[in-house]
Amino acid sequence: MTIPTTYSRTILRNYLSQYCPPISLQRTQWAVLSVISVVLLYAFFTLGKRPWHRRWGAYPPGPKGIPIFGNTFQIPLVAPWIRFTEWAAIYGDIYFLSALGMKIVVINSCEIGFDLLHKRGVNYSDRPRMTVIREHGGWTFALSAEPYGGEFHLKRRMINQYFNRSASAKYQSMLADNAKAFACSLLEHPTEFQSQNRMYTGANIMSLTYGHKVTSNDDEWVINAKEAIRTLECLGGPGVHPIDIWPILGKLPLRIWGTKFVRNVGFMKKAAERTTTLPYNIVKAKYFDGTALPSMATGLIEANLMPDGTVKHEDAINGVLAMTYIVMKTVGSLDTFIIAMIHFPEIQREAQQSIDELLQGERLPTFEDRGSLPYVEALYREVLRWKPVLPAGVPHRSVQDDKYQGMFIPAGSMIFFNMLAMMYNPQEFPDPSKFDPGRFLEYDDRDRRYSLRTDVRNPEDMAFGFGRRICPGRHFASAWIWITMATILSAFDILPARDQFGAVRLPEVEYDKGPIRCVFFV
Ligand code: HEM
Questions:
Q1: 0.90 cut: is pTM over it?
Q2: Is residue 518 annotated as involved in ligand binding?
Q3: Which CATH class is domain 145-521?
Q4: Its annotated pathway (predicted)?
């Protein structure tokens, strides 16, 4: 298949490395899958002939599949967003796939994401079943996998209370303090960015959610959170395993997916228990004996405390607190920032210069400076765009049949918003694989100042999703990433590490392809 040169196949392929080892199916597994598929398809075609298709119009365009199986064998099991993005270049901003009766709609433009997932949010805010994570992996109550409806609204209300824009503003001094502490730890350990990054991101969220103070990398809670992320990532992105696409496959013995898969599901279950129920029970016990530090957990316990001493909505509370794995995505954005600063030292210098001009080296940046540092803001936007941490988004599900621009979108479709295609749209972001904060800026020669362009889309519009399921932690994430970047830039030169012969060792552009070797130099 040829793809337009505007999409760099190499860059897209790089995303493969961000997710764990390929889920490789053996011949016997394919055989089992094929038999099941035929039976399913037979049922679907004999029982499922429906008149609506003709009444509502045609499906969106899409790659031609084969009889019965549709596009099943064209959708890669690993990193499907790469193929999704190649197809976007051919079939456009919205296209349709079918796989063994499962209808899949892929959205590749921000406008359509907004039209469907935001403006028609009532219809498009459900989640697919996410069978692997919820039913096998023990994340039954996680908000991110919750179906749209009663419990969802309760959980969103709980989380919004703590993370809406004004609530997030209250965390600014904590985030600024943590960023300073992070910078101090880099002074002490100038070659250990990655482990320090994970520790401080964990520290931010643990102290906020559970009032737990993280002091070292060996902290059990941080280790548990890292393990939870590892197990979740090893099973592919959310909603993309074949069992997620065809939940009926989950009824078969899990071992048909290989022993590695079974082992990982087991690890995932254990990690889910350790990062949700266990910390909650510890904090609850401390709350009742009066030793708990104030946190989101204690706030929610207090608000739901019954006269008989029980706590109502405990599952919902747990589901809201159990968001560490998504939160740890901020780690990926900061990794991207460091890699970019090492590969593009001239951009690093420009950002440092803009900070120095404003602060004159007299103090560290604060949130009040954010509006006066357009270059750093543009850098933050480019970090979000260049390597989206959730390249296929998190899938939604449509509840009812719908018609959009004359195309039919059937009820029960799995809706992917393909973040990678949106962020690499060459019309909005020319030469998309280039790391270039300048795309968001204009330079006034008279004032000799940068300002942010208003005619270029802010990647924040897409990076955090859409509509009623939009990331509730976006204000917090934006603040943490920004203050950390600004603090590091004002205090350090970020340099590539050298090997034992003194030769420069640039880190891989893909951050999961080994350690990020760098040095922080004051
Ligand atoms: C770089 C940082 C982050 C990125 C890029 C990010 C991105 C996303 C995206 C794309 C979604 C899916 C939205 C949708 O389905 O339309 C999401 C959901 C979610 N995010 Fe974030 N997020 C980040 C940090 C955070 C933080 C710091 C928190 C918590 C404070 C958080 C909590 C959540 C939760 C709970 C959901 C599930 C919402 C639901 O299903 O209703 N995220 N995030």
A1: no
A2: no
A3: mainly alpha
A4: Secondary metabolite biosynthesis
